[in-house]
Every structure is written in C-alpha cells, then in structure tokens.
Amino acid sequence: EVHLVESGGRLVQPGGSLRLSCEASGFTFRQYWMHWVRQVPGKGLVWVSRINENGDITDHADSVKGRFTISRDNAKNTLYLQMDSLRVDDTAIYYCGRDLAGLDSYWGQGTLVTVSS
Amino acid sequence: DIVMTQSPLFLPVTPGEPASISCRSSQSLLHRNGFKFFDWYLQKPGQSPQLLIYLGSNRASGVPDRFSGSESGTDFTLNISRVEPEDVGVYYCMQGLQTPYTFGQGTKLEI
C-alpha cells in the first residue's frame, strides 16, 4: 500500500527556515516525479514545486522561487522541501504528492507550517 | 500561467440525484502525446485530495462508476450520476500540462 508521510511542520518566525520531509513507502520511489502542494486551511490548493525521478530537474512556483528548494534522496525514499526566508503568507498545510496529473497520483496527509511572530 | 475556472463554487444536492461540475482552462491542455493533462480531485472533510479522474475522462482505480469525466476543447465536466452521502467535500480540477500546475477554485458539494 502506498504511503506518503510528511513531517517537519511547526511554528516558525518570519525570516526563519524549515525543512519538510516526506517519507515514501509501498512503491518504487525513484521511478516517480514528486511534488509539493500547499493549502491555507479552508482555502484552495496551490502547487509549489516538483522534482524529477533522479533529482536533476526541479521547478518552483514564482512565489517561492529563490526561497524554497525541493530535493530528494532516493536511497532513503524521502522527498524534502527546504524553506528559507519564510513569510507569514507561507503559512499553510504542505502536502507531498506522487506524480500529479496522472493515474498514479497520490497525496500524503500533510504537515502544517505556521509562520508567525 | 494557465487559469482554471470552476463552476459552480457551491453545489447543494439531494442524495440519489445527479450533479455536474464544470471547469474551463484558459488554454488548451493537449500534450503533443495526444493526451489532455487534466484531473479531477475530491477533498473530503479533514482529508487530503484524492484522485477521481485523470487525463480528462479516465476514472482512477477504486473510484465508483457513478463518477465520470468528459471534455470538449478547453471545457471539462465531472458528472455524478447519483450522489451519495459520502460524496460531500470540495472538488478541484487541475491542469498538469505545464508548470506551475494550477487548480480551480474548488466546488463545495453539500447534501
């Protein structure tokens, strides 16, 4: 059974840094593109970043470009999101997702990041 | 960026009755491989989104056959033939043709 378990979300001050992790199991992690999507509680979904199977292609939304970095460790079956220079409007639930836009799409349960002083 | 426009944003329904949600993309979602990179997701209360329909009209594994997707050009429709109580939640359309992937505003289905 496919599992994606996010962790690392917590309260952080504006300007601070945070690294989110997403541990994958139940499938061959190294064979899939992976994504991060965020959602302000009660609001809509916003795509954040994606990374290809071996980690040499990444894309980020303009709103996070230069501040967030997606990466992966295929040996550890883990996806990461390094978040620097955090702003109040980065407050959201962050979901990791497998291969969005296809039949293999699957989302984790999310981790809450709160940016506040 | 490709803009995805959903309607309606709120959909009150009666169990056993049909329901329909529309989504329009601001440009074609047709990939050179011949597929349209368009999905429908359902986010049930307190849960993460789950895939319902992929590539415009293909039902995901385990999705009841009362759900169906259709498309015409840049217009996409999700149909529920007979709404069940467990269908409540927010429905999102999404394009995955190009980054940034973009979602519709969401349609809240309530019984």
Written account of the structure:
By secondary structure, chain A is mainly beta. Helices cover 0% and strands 49% of the residues of chain A. Chain A contains no helices and eleven strands. Chain A starts with a strand and ends with a strand. With 111 residues, chain B is mainly beta. Chain B contains no helices and eleven strands. In chain B, the strands form two sheets. In chain B, strands 2, 4, 5, 6, 9, 10 and 11 form a seven-stranded mixed β-sheet that branches. Chain B has a four-stranded antiparallel β-sheet with strand order 1-3-8-7, with no helix packed on it. Chain B starts with a strand and ends with a strand. At the A-B interface, β5 and β10 of A face β4, β5, β9 and β10 of B.
User: What is the chain-wise order of helices and strands of chain A?
Assistant: EEEEEEEEEEE
Number of strands of chain B: 11
Shape of chain A: globular
Class of secondary structure makeup of chain A: mainly beta
The pair of chains with the biggest contact is: A-B, 21 and 28 residues
Rounded radius of gyration of chain B (Å): 13 Å
Low-confidence stretches of chain B: none
Unreliable spans of chain A are: none
Portion in helices of chain A: under 10%
Mean pLDDT of chain A: 96
Strand content of chain B: over 45%
Which helices and strands occur, and which strands form pairs?
The complex is a heterodimer of chains A (about 120) and B (about 110).
Chain A: E1 3-7, E2 11-12, E3 18-25, E4 34-39, E5 45-51, E6 58-60, E7 68-73, E8 78-83, E9 92-98, E10 106-107, E11 111-115
Parallel strand pairs in A: 2-11
Antiparallel strand pairs in A: 1-3, 3-8, 4-5, 4-9, 5-6, 7-8, 9-10, 9-11
Chain B: E1 4-7, E2 10-12, E3 19-25, E4 38-43, E5 50-54, E6 58-59, E7 67-72, E8 75-80, E9 89-95, E10 102-103, E11 107-110
Parallel strand pairs in B: 2-11
Antiparallel strand pairs in B: 1-3, 3-8, 4-5, 4-9, 5-6, 7-8, 9-10, 9-11
